[in-house]
Amino acid sequence: MQAVIIYDSLTGNTRRAANDIADELYRFGIGSNLFKVSEVSDAAVAGADLVLVGSWTDGLFVVAQKPGRRRKFKHLLPDLTGKRCAVFCTFALNPGNTLNKLTKLVEAHGGDVVGGMSIRRDDLEGGAAELTQRLVAVLSA
Predict the structure, then answer these.
(1) CA 120 from chain center: how many Å?
(2) CATH number, residue 86
(3) CA dist., res. 7 & res. 93, Å (int)
(4) How many domains does the chain fold into?
(5) Confidence of residue 119 (pLDDT cuts 50, 70, 90)
(6) DSSP class of 62
(7) What backbone phi and psi angles, to 5 degrees, belong to 12?
(8) pLDDT digits (tens, 9 = 90+) for 9-23
């Protein structure tokens, strides 16, 4: 199985979460390639069995949360039709509806979202491990 992880990161937390997820996927025998949303190619996604899309949480501390640079994802995500996808976001205080909004964005590109998780920036490694365990359980069912 091969995964592609597409992310955007403002401070480096989402990039670190993407790297941690890649490491965890490897533990389960799933190879992965990481791409910034501005660098992902159609060919990379075409060859993937699973596509993960991750963003940081933008907005005020407790209201109006959304995926960071949402328009960037809207315009740069490749066609995900027929792809099993998962979403994740990193956050400091409260992710609000960021994950739901990211899910809708991925679905608008044709992706079939099978899971997702909000990951606190102070526990990126633990969040990556939990998300990966959830995904492996869903994918093997």
Answers:
(1) 14
(2) 3.40.50.360
(3) 20
(4) 1
(5) very high
(6) S
(7) 105, -15
(8) 999 999 999 999 999
- For 32-56, b/e burial (b = at least 16 CB within 10 A) is bbbbebeebeeebbeebebbbbbbb
Question: What residues make up the domain containing 29?
Answer: 2-140
Helix (H) or strand (E) holding 19: helix 13-27
Q: Which of 130, 118, 22, 135 is nearest to 66 (CA)?
A: 118
pTM: 0.96
- Give the pair of three-digit tokens for residue 22: 């890649």
pLDDT in tens, 46-89: 999 999 999 999 987 777 899 998 889 999 999 999 999 999 99
Cα distance between residue 111 and residue 140, in whole Å? 19
| Side chain identity at residue 130, one-letter code | E
